[in-house]
Amino acid sequence: MKIAICGIRHESNSFSTLTTKLDDFRITRGEEILQDSFWSSYPDVEWKPILIGRAGPHGLVDKGAYISMRDEIIEGLEQNLPVDGVYLSLHGAMDVVDVGDGESDLITHIRKVVGDDIPITGSLDLHANVSPILADSTSALTAYRTSPHIDGAETRKRAVDHLINILSTGKHTRNVLIKLPLLLPGEYAVTEVEPAKSLYTKLFDIEKRPGIVDASILIGCAWTDSEYTSVSVIVVGEEDSQEADACAVELAQDIWSKRHEFKAEVETVSVEEAVTKAMNSEIYPVVISDSGDNVTAGGAGDTPIMLDELLKAHAEDAVIAGITDPEAVDKCVESGTNSVIKLNLGGKLDTSNGYKKQITGIVGNVVPSCMAVVAMNGIKVIITSDRRAFTDTQGYKQVGVDPLKEEIIVVKVGLLHGKIRDIAKKPIMAMSPGFTSLLLDELPYKRLKRPIFPLDDLSQFNV
C-alpha cells in the first residue's frame, strides 16, 4: 500500500499582534521525514513523504507562508498519485491571515487532489479547535490524551494504525464530532487532575465498545479567535455503526455536567499577590507562571511586569526566565561579562501589554546571539534572542544559573511542564496581562461562536 505523509502544525494566537512567518517553521521534506525510525516499523507500506511544517505557538500564520507550504503539499500529492491513503500531521488550531481555519483549507485542497474515496487519517493536539469540515473530510482523527503532552508518539501511531487497518480490511470509518458551547484555557484541564482525569480515562472504556475505533476530547485553544473555538469530542466509529453517535453524545454530556469543575491546578492570584506569596513562602523554589505572557501558547515573552513587581518588592534569590530581547542580548555580549550595563528591557514585541523597563545591572554569563544574564539587587534576568520557555534545566545551565539554588523562579508559561514542573515545590499562577491572558472575558473576541460558557449565561446544552 502507498501512503502519503504531510501536514502543517501550528497553534495560532489571534490576540498576538505578531505573525508567524515561513522562517518560523521547521520544515522537513521527502526522505528527511523518513529518518524517523517510526516509519520503518511498517515494512509493508510504501511511504510517500511530502512535507511537514512545524512552528511553536505564535500569532496568526502569514498567508504567504501558509500558501507556500500548502501548495508544496498539493504539488507533492499530485506527483505521487495514485496513493492509497494519506496521513496528516496536524495541530488543529491553525489560523491563517485572510484565510481563516488552516486545517479546513488544507483538507479541502487535499481532497480536490486525491478525491473523496481515499482514506485520510490525522493526529491532533489536545488543544485543537476542530472544524466540521476537517471531521467530515477525514476517516479518523485522534488527539493527544495528556496535558502536559507526553503522548505525541502514541497519538501518531494510533492515527497511522487506523489508516492501515482501513486499507487492510476495507472497513471504513467516520468521525462523529460534537462541539460544546464551552471555552476553556488549557491551564484549566490538566489530565492528571479532576475532572479531566476521569473524563480522559473514560476514552479507553469507550473504545472497548462494539463498533468504536477511537475517542478524543479536545479542550481547544482559547486564544484562537475562530468560529470553531470550543471544547469538542470526536468518536470514530465503523461506518455502518450508530454506536459512535451515542458515545459522542454521552461523552459531551459528561463534560458539560462538569463544566463548573474545571480550574487551574495551582493557586491563581494577581501579579502582586504572586510575588508576596512567593516571598513569604517557607518552601523553595517557588515557581511563578507569568501566564499572560505564556510563550507556549503564543505569548511574546517580553513583558517585564513580573520583573518590575519583584524589584518593587525588593525580592532576592530570584530569576526571571526569561525576557525576549535580541537587542539587549547583543548589548550584553558587546559590554562583556562583569560589566555594568543599562538597558531598556522588553516591551518591543508585545507593545500592547508590555513596556520598556529601564534597568541597570551586571552582565553575567553570555551565549553570543542566544542568551545573557543580567543581575541586579539579588534578581537574575535571563535575556534571550528568541521566544523560549525555560521548562527544562538545560537552558538555565547554559548561562550558569542553577534553578534549584533560587528561591523564586518566574517562567513565561502557563501550565508547568517538563523539569520545571518537578522542581517547583510551590507553584503559583500569576494572572498577568498579555496575549495569553487567562481573563478570557476581557479578550476582544470577534469570531467566537456565542453564546458560550463561561462568557455567557448558558445553563443548558442540547446536543
Enumerate the spans where pLDDT stays under 50 for 5 or more consecutive residues. Answer: none
Tally of individual helices: 11
Number of domains: 2
Mind telling me the C-alpha Rg?
Answer: 23 Å
**What sort of overall outline do the alpha carbons produce when their principal axes are compared?**
globular
As laid out across the biggest beta sheet, the strand order is 14-22-15-21-16-20-19-18-17
Main beta-sheet strand count, sense and barrel state: 9 strands, mixed
Secondary structure tally: strands:
22
% residues in beta strands:
25-35%
Distance between the termini: 39 Å
Task: State mean pLDDT (0 to 100 scale).
Answer: 97
Structural class: alpha/beta
Helix content: 25-40%
Summarize the structure.
This protein is of the alpha/beta class. The protein has helices at 63-80, 102-114, 132-136, 152-169, 196-206, 243-257, 271-280, 305-312, 326-335, 394-398, 419-423; strands at residues 2-9, 12-13, 26-29, 46-54, 58-59, 85-89, 95-96, 100-101, 120-124, 140-143, 173-179, 212-218, 232-238, 267-269, 286-290, 318-324, 340-345, 357-367, 371-376, 379-384, 408-411, 426-430.
Structure commentary:
With 463 residues, the protein is of the alpha/beta class. The chain has 2 domains: 2-261, no CATH class; 267-437, no CATH class. It has helices at residues 63-80, 102-114, 132-136, 152-169, 196-206, 243-257, 271-280, 305-312, 326-335, 394-398, 419-423; strands at 2-9, 12-13, 26-29, 46-54, 58-59, 85-89, 95-96, 100-101, 120-124, 140-143, 173-179, 212-218, 232-238, 267-269, 286-290, 318-324, 340-345, 357-367, 371-376, 379-384, 408-411, 426-430. The strands form 5 sheets. Strands 14-22-15-21-16-20-19-18-17 form a 9-stranded mixed beta sheet.
